[in-house]
Amino acid sequence: MRAVRSSDRKIQVIEVPAPGGEGLRVRVRSAGICGSDLLMLERGLLAHTIGHEFAGLLDDDTPVAVQPVTPCADCELCRAGSYQLCETCVGSTLGVYRDGGMTDELRVAPECIVPLAAGVRVEDACLVEPLAVAIHGLEKAGVSAGQRVVVVGAGSLGLAAAAAALFRGCEVDVVARHDAQHRAAEVLGAGRAPRGVYDLAIDAAGNERAIARAVELARPGGGLLLLGWDWERVVLPGAGIAAKELAVRATMIYSHESALRDVDAAAALLAERPEVSDALISHRFPLDEAPRAFEVARERRAGAIKVVLEP
């Protein structure tokens, strides 16, 4: 079977043995290219089959998405549902530390399966993972209906955050750099910032300029959510944060700290808001064209938002 891996920072589609061992077999039908995949590729950090955003079919043809981390079940954090803070759990992430979803099939732990509601296309369900990241961040930031939210950075994560905030009943504006991102935000129902100041400013880009802009747009006494991230050092505008007494929150992936797993909440959002798929997925490629797909994923000026591989 086929798998997408990197060699000398170049993407290749190679033949690998079919997966064995325990777990449920998932025949992959969609796998999204994440910005973190591009960062890890540039740094030569991808040693396994790539892909932590993916969905597919079980052996009985049930469509599912996959949570790419498995709670260890041994530590207090995982037992409390805070598996995003468990080093063992995060250190086993599919597509990063173990073989992931850019392949024809793989086996995953039963607790990683995310059921999909009727009507959700499995070809779109790779969006469950990035939507869960956004939902987790908003939950930690304490966002509630009626609040004004601005998202700085309109890549797939920023647009996922906008979609999740709109789903919560917030008024949402987006700061975008490219025309395709503006159009996608409009499809979601978000406005174009700035329009005054905001209860919560979300940085979804992870660089100093974006964070500084988010601080400018937050109201005094409001919040700053650091949703985007990089491995590089970023200097926060301390004077601006202090002058407004902003509540600063940084978050990591997703959890099961509330009634629903964040991934299940993301699947529910995707079921109720089908326009999210239309807004976020800009390109689709067959698995054999993975090298070209990764090239396109870097072309933000040319309209790339979420690029999806379909084995």
Please state the CA-atom Rg, rounded to the nearest Å: 19 Å
Q: What's the main sheet like?
A: 7 strands, mixed
Q: Mean pLDDT score, rounded?
A: 95
| Overall number of structural domains | 2
Please trace the helix and strand order, writing H or E for each element. EEEHEEHHEEHEHEHEEHEHEHHEHE
Helical residues, percent: 25-40%
Descriptors for this entry?
311 residues; 2 domains; seven-stranded mixed beta sheet; 11 helices; Quinone Oxidoreductase, Chain A, domain 1; 25% strand; Rossmann fold; six-stranded parallel beta sheet
Overview of this protein structure:
The chain has 311 residues and is α/β, with parallel strands linked by helices. It folds into two domains: 185 residues, Quinone Oxidoreductase, Chain A, domain 1 (Alpha-Beta Complex), CATH 3.90.180.10; 117 residues, NAD(P)-binding Rossmann-like Domain (Rossmann fold, 3-Layer(aba) Sandwich). 30% of the residues lie in helices and 25% in strands. It has eleven helices and 15 strands. The strands form three sheets. Strands 3, 4, 5, 6, 7, 14 and 15 form a seven-stranded mixed β-sheet that branches. Helix 4 packs across helix 5 and helix 5 packs parallel to helix 6. It is globular, with a radius of gyration of 19 Å. The model has no long low-confidence stretch (mean pLDDT 95).
List the helices and strands and how they pair.
Layout: E1 2-7, E2 10-15, E3 24-32, H1 35-42, E4 53-57, E5 63-66, H2 76-79, H3 87-90, E6 105-108, E7 113-115, H4 128-141, E8 148-152, H5 156-167, E9 171-175, H6 179-188, E10 191-192, E11 198-203, H7 208-217, E12 218-226, H8 238-244, E13 247-250, H9 262-272, H10 275-280, E14 281-286, H11 290-297, E15 306-310
Parallel strand pairs: 8-9, 8-11, 9-10, 11-12, 12-13, 14-15
Antiparallel strand pairs: 1-2, 3-4, 3-6, 3-15, 4-5, 5-7
